[in-house]
Write a structure and sequence with these properties.
This protein is mainly alpha-helical. It has 4 helices and no strands. The mean pLDDT is about 80.
Length: about 110
Amino acid sequence: MAASPRLFYAGFWLRFLAVLIDSAIQAAAAFILLIPLVMITGVAGALSKMHPGEDPEDLLTIAGVGLILGFIAIVFVGKWLYYALLESSAWQATVGKRVLGLKVTDKEGQR
């Protein structure tokens, strides 16, 4: 029976830094995604056509709620896929973990 490799666990601050890197990547992707969503739903156009004294809630109720719910769903699924696909890939890590030299393994050091 082969000896298991010696595993070293990353500390809190190293893991926290990896999460910050991953969060910055995900926030940039979400922002890039949000721009076309705003344009497609017409929320930006509705705001620009408002008259002084007009209540923005009337214009944004349906489009805004749909935009927010759709955006939350896309971000939630995107975040789940980001971690699931990268940590189960040959990298065994997200981009943040890879930058810091961390890997996600089982007790034998395998994916």
